[in-house]
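Problem 12. The chain below contains 123 residues. Write out its predicted structure in token notation.
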Amino acid sequence: MALLVLLSTISFTMEKHFCGDVLIDTAIFSKAESCCDLEIKAITVAEKKSCCKEEMEVVKGQVNLKKVTFEDLNFDQQIFISTLYYSYLNLFEGLPQQIIPHKDYSPPNLVTDIQVLDQVFII
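Solution.
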């Protein structure tokens, strides 16, 4: 949701520079390079000025954002939102800690293997 608001409110300028009818450079968020700055001996200064053309296209983002507070909602919507919020918080309520009665119990040391002693094997 935050990404959607960010993308809808961003504004930027796209600059295009033409020399005659040929697109020379396009830039977003920066200045487009101009061919008029190049020093070409065959073209005079007057011809450079006449062939260069710059276009700027401004894309404006949304400026008016509607801010709604909880008090602006009607009573039924307030009940629904508060019920949803309360039930959502109860989903993450912690479980009671389980008591393990034999947690510290250590089994006795085995001196001999009883299955081998009695010759009882699971097949």
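Discussion. DSSP finds four helices and three strands in the chain. Students who got a different answer should revisit the alignment rule from Section 12.3.
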